[in-house]
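step: validate -> pass
step: tokenize input -> pass
step: predict -> running
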Amino acid sequence: EPRSRPEGIFKPTPFSVWANDAVRIRLLRNERDLHDPSRQFHPLFTHQVFGPREEIVGFDAPAVEIVYSAASLKPAVSFKGHAIEKDQLKALGLEATAVADLVKRFAPCDYAASPEEVVSDAEAQEFRPAGEQVYAYEAASSGVGPACESDAP
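step: predict -> pass
step: emit ->
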């Protein structure tokens, strides 16, 4: 179940949105995953990037998309949103959030320029988890669990 907005901390205004709603993360294995809604999710927390109120101020319909290659975890970061007039914000004592700068500050220095570059990376490499395999489990043919000697007919 998705985490609800912390009403005691975040009080929306006409000029702000909860960052958790504006950020979307996708994990891609191939180009089909780019358009598959089951391969995306909203983060549970964004305070590490947007501060304790998890708020984006000064944009109409802000959207932060972080796309990762499942093979290498190389990300692409993009931001879209229509800036609200600075005079309107200033009249309310507000300042627009530097969304692109904040998100890119936390991205690795070699992040991809576009989601298409991440798709190319994902399709070029086969997913292989980091580390060394220590143990593997194989289910019994019944799918219930491992076969035991006492189960033999």
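step: describe -> The mean pLDDT is 84.
step: cleanup -> pass
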